[in-house]
Amino acid sequence: MNSKRQFLRQSITAVLAVGASTLTAKVLAQKQVVNKSIKSLNSQLKPIVVSTWQHGIAANKAAWQVLAEHGKAIDAVEAGVRIPEADPNVMTVGYGGYPDREGNVTLDACIMDENQNCGAVAFLQHIKHPISVARLVMDNTPHVMLVGEGALQFAKSQGFIEENLLTPQAKKAWQDWLVESKYAPVINIENHDTIGMLALDSNGDLSGACTTSGAAFKMSGRVGDSPIIGAGLYVDNEVGAATATGMGELMIKTVGCHLVVEMMRQGMTPTQACKAAVERIAHKLGDYKQFQVGFLALSKSGEYGSYCIQPGFNYAVTSKAGSKLLDSASIL
Length: 332
Ligand code: SD4
Fold this sequence. Notes:
Layout: H1 3-45, E1 48-52, H2 56-68, H3 73-86, E2 107-112, E3 118-124, H4 130-140, E4 145-147, H5 148-157, H6 168-180, E5 195-200, E6 206-212, E7 233-236, E8 240-246, H7 248-254, H8 256-265, H9 270-284, E9 293-299, E10 304-308, E11 314-319, E12 322-327
Parallel strand pairs: 3-4
Antiparallel strand pairs: 1-5, 1-11, 2-3, 2-6, 5-6, 7-8, 8-9, 9-10, 11-12
Helix pairs in contact: 2-3, 3-4, 7-9, 8-9
N-hydroxy-L-asparagine binds at residues 92, 187-188, 192-194, 212, 214-215, 224-226, 245-248.
């Protein structure tokens, strides 16, 4: 190669290199601007907490106290759902919950954190805060779920006290029900109140909790979706979280909350994902119109949404902007 040609080639290579590095620098700078604005948008959306039904407002308030202090989402959801658990006027969660057909209050709950850790209790009696027992199953045992007598013994070993959870109000409702003893588990049309709560903390981590006394006047030993990871609650810290309320059998049959999170993973918004899960139930289960099911979801970026079968499901949202109660869209 003659020296003139060599000089030309070197010059072109040098010009291209300068051009390329300027371009790379420009692209990087633009990328940083985009990342910065995504970050600031996200920090506006977090922390945030959402939960099912009207009693979610009071529950979110307790959760918000944790989130506002830069606490962890897992601590926020536990603190939040303990409010309706202790409230005798909430007739389908914890203390004051409607009993089964034998007159026994039996409770189901589960909790899940940002690291895929989870804990659950089912058919637990005499303990006011099943969510905190579920938390200790997660934190202090190698297991995910304890049920019945075993769950009670574990709770007592952790310092929980046995209490009578059947309030005079709930006893009266059960005695009235006994007159006809008609087992019609149509929940959420008149009788709703399971609390499912999802939170995104200021660190960007997601967690969820779900707690209930289940279907009123259910068969003894009946367990619904609420303590079952994937059915009544699911959290994937890379994607989002979902919880459910309503006729638990429908969520169990479709592994509803896991389905919602997987739909979000495929790119759906929380509302689209909840709608897709309700549509799956409608498509697979012929009798779905007799029941209520409501899904609530929160994405990793703080976007939330819901969908249900019957009109009437609502949910509470609390963020820096304050608290609000929103009506869910429905398939019927
Ligand atoms: C259950 N999913 O035990 C619960 C009940 C419920 O609002 O959500 N009620 O099936």
